[in-house]
Amino acid sequence: MTSKDCGSHTHSRRKLIRRIIWSIIFILFIIFLTILLIWAILQPSKPRFILQDATVYAFNVSGNPPNLLTSNFQITLSSRNPNDKIGIYYDRLDVYATYHSQQITFRTSIPPTYQGHKEVNIWSPFVYGTSVPVAPFNAVSLDGDQDNGAVTLIIRADGRVRWKVGTFITGKYHLYVRCLAYINFGNKAAGVIVGDNAVKYTLTSSCSVSV
Fold first, then answer.
1. What's the number of domains the chain is made of?
2. 162 and 127 in one domain?
3. pTM as predicted
4. What CATH number does the domain containing 196 carry?
5. Using H for helix, E for strand and C for coil, what is the string for 84-105?
6. 111-132 pLDDT, tens digit each
7. 32 and 53 in one domain?
8. pLDDT score of 1
9. pLDDT(206) > 90
10. Are 24 and 120 members of one domain?
11. What is the rounded CA–CA span in Å between residue 194 and residue 173?
């Protein structure tokens, strides 16, 4: 075989490899474009969360000055998937409470779950904190709230979700849920006694959701 034949053979081989690479790129582009079109047509909606109730087992401020908060709640949080063709994977969901933007409980993890089309999931996690230091400016406000017999908290749920369209599953998206919880300690008629020092308050509060 002459050097000319070898050069021609090498050139043909490179040309074939380039064609294969461009064919693969074209196929991947078509797949990606198809997924984008399906996604745009279906227009997935965010899940809808409702804070249904909160059972208060403890909510006490101690210390001198009073800046240590011990709290223990069991909340009922429902989530509805409004999509009729898209499922939702909750890979991670951590629930906790804040007071004036300060976290006052530990994070409680909800087990990973899949939510089908138009499906509703209900979770009842405990959120609690023991002798949590409260910022001085919040301690004054919290002391006043206790004297008035009512406190406003924000129940938060932070996590990661994925969307399922047919057999296609997206990457992970951040999920942020914020629920207003107004708890009226001073009005005994506002809650129902469910055990020793435990009172259940019906809230039915729609939550803001960001993805």
1. 2
2. yes
3. 0.80
4. 2.60.40
5. CCEEEEEEEEEEEEEECCEECC
6. 999 999 999 999 999 999 999 9
7. no
8. 52
9. yes
10. no
11. 38
- Smallest Cα–Cα separation from 49: which of 182, 163, 178? 178
Contact 204, 52 (CB under 8 A): yes
Q: Does residue 3 have a pLDDT over 60?
A: no
Indicate if 11 and 94 belong to the same structural domain.
Answer: no
**Domain residue limits at 67:** 48-210
Residue of 75, 175, 160, 194 whose CA lies nearest to 125? 75
* Distance separating alpha carbons of residues 15 and 202, to the nearest angstrom: 71
- Could you write out the three-class secondary structure of the chain? CCHHHHHHHHHHHHHHHHHHHHHHHHHHHHHHHHHHHHHHHHCCCCCEEEEEEEEEEEEEEECCCCCEEEEEEEEEEEEECCCCCEEEEEEEEEEEEEECCEECCCCEEECCEEECCCCEEEECCEEEEEEEECCHHHHHHHHHHHHHCEEEEEEEEEEEEEEEECCEECCCEEEEEEEEEEEECCCHHHEEEEECCEEEEEEEEECEEEC
Residues 13 and 100 in one domain: no
Contact between 74 and 126 under an 8 Å Cβ cutoff? The reply is yes
- Give the model confidence (pLDDT) of 127-179 as tens digits: 999 999 999 888 888 888 878 889 999 999 999 999 998 888 888 999 999 99
Phi, psi values for residue 147, rounded to 5°: -65, -35
Token representation of residue 193: 């006694």
The residue type found at 116 is G
What length is written for the chain? 211
pLDDT at residue 5, rounded to an integer:
54
